[in-house]
């Protein structure tokens, strides 16, 4: 396993949107037909309508709604209500996955993302992210594709080991193959899960570490000829929705899942050994209390001059809010450590240097 490097990147929603402008925003139209599906489910429909009423044009703040549905409220105790909310949670995750797949058709800055992936692998830069998408994951893997053969001496990233834990490929459900855990050049630590982290069918929460497997369209190890190329054989072994966890106010919701214990421990170790940390497109929301504790405790050894924030707020009010949010965690971070600019522009200059 590669040692932890001294620079860590922390990636937020602004990072993904800089490279994929059509990626869904925090508040967006995730599925225009979603409301119609819940005509006969009054409790779920009421919550969905309330969320849409809070936003222009009936859009949805997906993280807020996921948080509401995943955590539930004390008055959701009736079984009929819980069943409806579970259906809505599943439909929302599926709608989100569809939007991400549609965003992949937009290739505006894919070359720049690949350049950054190569840079991170070459420099051994660990990345922490709160994003659910697998856009950066794909670019990291494509830097030096490892697919059923020995890796050799070239540094690479592979999802088998690149997430900080042994995450077997979905094909392992129906046939054994080669796994790449011990030589990954850097980690992509996804603190809230990922759209390509799937749960073995029948596993119950809290999930064991080996209940999580990775499954994605961009990396499909070949199956034995006797099994053909039938993706349904694999789908039968996985739950239909991915393992993703919305931002939560209570840390207990994170600590109950063993897989998050592993990933967050890796993140803490990487941050604690870092000599420089760059937050890219991440607003550090005050409502995500667990993340605030992580950064405040793990980075207390760093001089504030070694913490940089790269983000592009909409206006001066947004800039003030970003500074306030970061100074809640890092009270002494100076003004010159905030770069209010597009993440794509900053990254492009970084790779060129």
Characterization of this structure:
With 353 residues, this protein is an alpha/beta fold. The protein folds into 2 domains: 1-21 and 107-353, no CATH class; 27-103, no CATH class. The chain has helices at residues 13-19, 42-53, 62-71, 79-103, 110-123, 135-143, 159-162, 232-235, 252-255, 258-272, 289-298, 316-329, 343-352, and strands spanning 7-11, 27-28, 60-61, 126-129, 168-169, 188-190, 193-200, 212-214, 238-244, 276-280, 307-311, 338-340. The strands form 3 sheets. A 6-stranded parallel β-sheet has the order 6-4-1-10-11-12. β11, α12 and β12 form a beta-alpha-beta unit. α5 (110-123) packs across α13. The chain is globular, with a radius of gyration of 20 Å. The model has no long low-confidence stretch (mean pLDDT 85).
Quick structural gist:
The protein has helices spanning 13-19, 42-53, 62-71, 79-103, 110-123, 135-143, 159-162, 232-235, 252-255, 258-272, 289-298, 316-329, 343-352; strands at 7-11, 27-28, 60-61, 126-129, 168-169, 188-190, 193-200, 212-214, 238-244, 276-280, 307-311, 338-340. It has 353 residues and is of the alpha/beta class.
Notable characteristics:
single chain, 353 residues, alpha/beta, 2 domains, six-stranded parallel sheet, four-stranded mixed sheet, 13 helices
């Amino acid at each position: 396993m590669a040692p932890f490097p001294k620079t860590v990147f922390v990636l937020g929603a602004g990072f993904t949107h800089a490279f994929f402008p059509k990626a869904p925003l925090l508040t967006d139209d995730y599925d225009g037909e979603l409301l119609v599906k819940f005509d006969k489910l009054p409790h779920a429909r009421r919550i969905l309508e309330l969320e849409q009423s809070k936003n222009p044009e009936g859009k949805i703040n997906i993280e807020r709604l996921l948080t509401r549905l995943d955590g539930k409220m004390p008055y959701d105790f009736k079984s009929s209500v819980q069943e409806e909310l579970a259906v809505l949670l599943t439909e929302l995750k599926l709608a989100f996955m569809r939007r991400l797949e549609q965003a992949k058709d937009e290739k505006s800055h894919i070359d720049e993302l690949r350049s950054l992936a190569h840079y991170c692998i070459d420099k051994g830069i660990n990345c922490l992210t709160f994003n659910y998408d697998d856009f950066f994951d794909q670019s990291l893997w494509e830097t030096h594709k490892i697919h059923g053969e020995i890796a050799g001496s070239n540094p690479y990233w592979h999802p088998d080991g690149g997430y900080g834990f042994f995450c077997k490929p979905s094909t392992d459900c129906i046939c054994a193959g080669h796994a790449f855990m011990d030589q990954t050049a850097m980690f992509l630590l996804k603190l809230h899960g990922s759209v390509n982290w799937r749960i073995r069918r029948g596993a119950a929460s809290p999930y064991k570490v080996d209940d999580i497997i990775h499954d994605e369209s961009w990396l499909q190890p070949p199956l034995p000829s006797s099994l053909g190329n039938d993706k349904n054989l694999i789908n039968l072994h996985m739950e239909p929705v991915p393992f993703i966890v919305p931002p939560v106010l209570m840390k207990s919701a994170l600590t109950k899942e063993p897989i998050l214990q592993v990933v967050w421990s890796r993140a803490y170790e990487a941050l604690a050994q870092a000599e420089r940390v760059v937050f890219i497109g991440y607003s550090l929301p005050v409502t995500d209390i667990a993340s605030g504790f992580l950064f405040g405790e793990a980075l207390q050894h760093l001089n504030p001059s070694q913490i940089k924030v790269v983000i592009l707020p909409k206006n001066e009010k947004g800039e003030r809010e970003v500074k306030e949010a970061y100074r809640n965690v890092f009270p002494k971070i100076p003004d010159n450590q905030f770069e209010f600019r597009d993440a794509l522009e900053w990254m492009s200059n970084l790779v060129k240097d």
